[in-house]
Write a structure and sequence with these properties.
- The chain has one domain.
- The protein has four helices and no strands.
- The radius of gyration is 19 Å and the shape is flat.
- Helix content is about 75%, strand content about 0%.
- The longest helix is centred in the last third of the chain and has 34 residues.
- The C terminus is likely disordered.
- It is mostly helical and about 150 residues long.
- Helix 2 packs parallel to helix 4.
């Protein structure tokens, strides 16, 4: 039985994605860094979001019995880990305060986690709509007296 995620969870997921992404980008915009450094951190953010969503899709597809090639599954894991390592290496060598480093790391991880949750919600809502189930697991058109 497919159940839609609650509106609260969908809202929290989108809020987390927007808060993490906007905070990270605002921090970069205001940072006293070379433009090339800002570009590096922005590219790592985009790479991380894409790889996290790709990994979530590959894992979910496997759980649902949808064929996922070993190379795609492995590359999804590799990309997600690499994006995090690239951020760590960049921050390790960055000439910014430790509090800024922590800010970028936390905003990055929040956005990555929320991107996975948003993608999961989008998929669950589409699947629930396709199969005709509501939050309570009742099919469309069925009502109970309360």
């Amino acid at each position: 039985m497919i159940q839609k995620p609650s509106g609260a969870f969908i809202g929290a997921s989108w809020t987390g994605l927007l808060a993490g992404s906007i905070s990270y980008c605002t921090g970069l915009w205001n940072a006293d860094m070379l433009l090339s450094e800002k570009g590096y951190y922005f590219a790592i953010m985009m790479y991380g979001l894409f790889s996290a969503v790709s990994l979530q899709k590959a894992v979910r597809d496997q759980l649902e019995g949808i064929k996922v090639t070993a190379i795609y599954y492995g590359l999804s894991w590799f990309s997600t880990i690499l994006s995090i390592l690239l951020l760590i290496i960049g921050l390790w060598h960055a000439d910014v305060s430790r509090s800024e480093k922590g800010f970028y790391a936390m905003a990055y991880l929040l956005a990555m986690f929320a991107a996975v949750a948003v993608q999961k919600n989008v998929r669950d809502v589409a699947l629930a709509d396709k199969t005709g189930y509501f939050n309570e697991g009742r099919s469309k058109g069925q009502h109970t007296e309360e």
